[in-house]
TrEMBL record:
The chain crosses the membrane at residues 37-58, 65-83, 95-117. Keywords: Membrane, Signal, Transmembrane, Transmembrane helix. It comes from the Bacteria. The lineage of its organism: Bacteria, Pseudomonadati, Pseudomonadota, Alphaproteobacteria, Hyphomicrobiales. Pfam families: DUF423 (PF04241). Residues 1-25 form the signal peptide. It comes from Agrobacterium bohemicum. This is Oxidoreductase.
Length: 122
């Protein structure tokens, strides 16, 4: 599988999650819907910087691709489910939030695993 699209996708998702996190924080504050929208905002704003960091360190982080995929997709699934629950009263699909949460956890573990791989000097 070619990974040439993954690096710019991590930057793109970082920007989208950052913008979405700020918008969700505003929506949560102005509507008082802090439980679901506030939690979705927190997850977006927590994971946007790490995707940016992965983008910046892509060449030195040996597990950058799986970490970015797991963190990005996991965050989208988790927050998408919370947003869906708020606006429609039902989740995106059964188990979307737990699957997204496990994806985020595995993404962080994939990033941690990079500590055990040698990197080339740049």
């Amino acid at each position: 599988m070619s990974k040439s699209w993954l690096r710019p996708t991590s930057l793109f998702l970082s920007g989208l999650l950052g913008a979405g996190g700020v918008a969700l924080a505003a929506a949560a504050t102005h509507t008082g819907a802090t439980q679901l929208l506030g939690n979705a905002s927190t997850m977006c704003l927590a994971h946007a910087p790490i995707l940016l960091g992965i983008y910046v360190g892509w060449e030195r982080i040996k597990t950058a691709a799986p970490a970015a995929i797991l963190l990005g997709v996991g965050t989208v699934l988790f927050t998408g489910d919370l947003i869906s629950r708020h606006f429609t009263g039902s989740g995106a699909f059964p188990m979307a939030a737990p699957i997204g949460g496990v994806g985020m956890i595995l993404g962080w573990l994939a990033l941690a695993a990079a500590a055990f791989f040698k990197t080339a000097r740049l």
